[in-house]
């Protein structure tokens, strides 16, 4: 087991894996990735709905979301040597009430100012784009450059290519602490006492990042949030765009093989007190998601559910992630609190993390995502 590296990455999800790949591609091949579970991408990276969207994002996220779509996703399958099932077929964010339209219009106005190709459409145009949707829909926002991909395949594709370039991965490597030497982050300590050393440490471990960062005196203001997803049996080909709603009660798309994948919310998620290793779905919350889907796509009312799953989000207190050097802890880079938005932007984030390790200016300005933005309100 190699225990010394130029970069130690904590977290084997798509952010950590993409960072490892882009580091190796840029010539920094002495990289170690530590993953707590037995499998790579076991957390949110393989449990999300696969959205690759720019629309509906916070203005602080939108520039690098656009960069990810323009620079990386269209050619990612070819670059990584694996079909990640990326489809750039657009995103309809649906609404049924005037309140929904007002909310969507506000998002569209902000996104257009930052250069995104997105616009409002009426119910008639919604039905022209997707005739299978409910007649109750009065309008939507439409972003033709949004899309979706397969989260598990994309995560594993980065892992595979990183290994081919010399990166070393260790699973069942639960990190309990980071240790400083002479004021600089230097060591990563596992639960079994194993110690890894790195010139740079990237912390990209989802919600678990909070406890790990606390070991060097850094507290990331975030909470955990349990979200669920389901897959239907295969259906006839209906549409290939991504769907969402103004109230975010569900989102999803039809997969390449015909099944639909939907993520959903019931409004009870923040009351969930399960342990982080408990990933069971609930009949109470899952049924709420099914009702939401049927309310917008009535043709699926008789579709059988093949399976369902859940996963934990690392929810930032202000809704956007922390991607940042830490002035108080030189050598440590945070990449966490993605608030459920980490998958679609992961190629750009991994690329920028590699630039940060090299001490270079990031491709997109992410100053607004610095850790030191958090200030006490009193």
UniProtKB/TrEMBL annotation:
One of its GO terms (cellular component) is cytoplasm. InterPro entries: FAD-dep_OxRdtase, FAD/NAD-bd_sf. GO terms for molecular function: oxidoreductase activity. Keywords: Oxidoreductase. Residues 6-356 form the FAD dependent oxidoreductase domain. Pfam families: DAO. This is SoxB-like sarcosine oxidase, subunit beta related. It comes from Clostridium tyrobutyricum DIVETGP.
